[in-house]
Amino acid sequence: MAATIRLFTLSVLFLFPIFSLGFSPESPTDRHILVLVDDLAIKSSHSIFFKTLTDRGFDLDFKLAHDPKLALQRYGQYLYDGLILFAPSVDHLGGSLDLSAILDFVDSGHDLILAADTTTSDLIRDIAADCGVDFDEDLGALVIDHTSYAVSKTDSDHTLIVSDDAINSKVILGGKKLEAPVLFRGIAHSLNPANSLVLKVLSASPSAYSANPKADLSSPPALIGSSISLVSVVQARNNARVLISGSLDLFSNKFFKSPVKRFGSSVEHAKSGNEQFVSELSKWVFHERGHLKAVNVQHHKVGETFEPAMYRITDNLEYSVEIYEWTGKDWKPYIADDVQVQFYMMSPYVLKTLSHDNKGLYSVSFQVPDVYGVFQFKIEYQRVGYTSLSLSKQIPVRPFRHNEYERFIKAAYPYYGGTFSMMTGFFIFGLFFLYHK
């Protein structure tokens, strides 16, 4: 019995470092990532992409997607903080992994990168569909473009398309413009209009369409033009992030190093923009950019420093909060002019934009409304590419006590004057009536 207890203790101590690798708001890049592949050759054919992650401090665990020992959690604790699913053809995952396990992983606040190709299975399609992305259902279909494709001295493949129509967002793709167009060969997908959380990151050109290049085009394609999304991202309400690509080759060494020349253009780039595009996008997916935190939420009366248990109607108060953004290495002050606070009871009685000191401190002063009850200070900050901030702090507001009212109310001076003038007039009238003959 004692030996069993010692063995259990040692196993817990062994697993503790693994569990401690979980995502921490104080250190967002301390991450352990599971990479699932359907062929271990992907580890070498996509080695540049994986090296960019390890160079940034990520710990990658490579496993075959059908490994019977696969598990995302143990003893109720997740073993990984992110998942890269580079197994488009896998029909079912090994171990305890299935569709619901992957979705629960994301619902628990973890990140996911998913890549597809023409062999994409129903499992991969279902995962993408639950994230708001619908792949073209036509088996064998590829994105084809006869005007925006890559040309070389030996070949011109209209399924190897060139795109630089990327989302205009510094927080998602970084502040540096793409140095070269992105190469893409893969399947098209569209965004579910009912899902407001999914964003198109890389779009096809207006002349593109989705079809099987080996079959006759007997009917109009279902997906055409700029409605085709090549790469999309999702930021869930719990701030989990998902990247969905219709091309596994997008991440390959071959595409990273390949020169690019667009049809009809005389400009040839020494290498594609894939490495820059994928690296910057992966920084966003794994919270190295656009990750906000709010600390030191304070409120007090003007001229005081301590936080009261309640406010009185018409009190003047100050509200402040510090907001920082993770840079990948440390926290820096977040600078924005659109952070607002609500003084809320059933509906916002006060809505104020906070001013900042360029050092992360946001503050505002306002007067408590002439309504008593239980109020809340609320900040609901949601911007594209940034993790959402949802702050609330409850505080009661009371009316004046009986001994706190002013002795003489300025607004009542006319009524005071009317009363005393009536008394004076009555006194004069009485004297006149009694003594005047």
UniProtKB/TrEMBL annotation:
InterPro entries, per database record: DDOST_48_kDa_subunit, OST48_MD, OST48_N
Location, primary (coarse class): endoplasmic reticulum
Subcellular locations according to the entry: Endoplasmic reticulum membrane; Membrane
Signal peptide, first to last residue: 1-22
Gene Ontology biological process terms in this record: protein N-linked glycosylation via asparagine
Coiled coil: none
Membrane protein topology class: Single-pass type I membrane protein
Keyword annotations from UniProtKB, A to Z: Endoplasmic reticulum, Membrane, Signal, Transmembrane, Transmembrane helix
Annotated OST48 middle domain residues: 299-437
Membrane-spanning intervals of the chain: 413-435
Entries under Pfam families matching the protein: OST48_MD, OST48_N
Pathway: Protein modification; protein glycosylation
Top-rank taxon: Eukaryota
GO (cellular component) term, any one: oligosaccharyltransferase complex
Residue span(s) of domain OST48 N-terminal: 33-285
Similarity remark: Belongs to the DDOST 48 kDa subunit family.
Subunit structure, interactors included: Component of the oligosaccharyltransferase (OST) complex.
PANTHER family: DOLICHYL-DIPHOSPHOOLIGOSACCHARIDE--PROTEIN GLYCOSYLTRANSFERASE 48 KDA SUBUNIT
Function: Subunit of the oligosaccharyl transferase (OST) complex that catalyzes the initial transfer of a defined glycan (Glc(3)Man(9)GlcNAc(2) in eukaryotes) from the lipid carrier dolichol-pyrophosphate to an asparagine residue within an Asn-X-Ser/Thr consensus motif in nascent polypeptide chains, the first step in protein N-glycosylation. N-glycosylation occurs cotranslationally and the complex associates with the Sec61 complex at the channel-forming translocon complex that mediates protein translocation across the endoplasmic reticulum (ER).
Name of the protein described by the UniProt record: Dolichyl-diphosphooligosaccharide--protein glycosyltransferase 48 kDa subunit
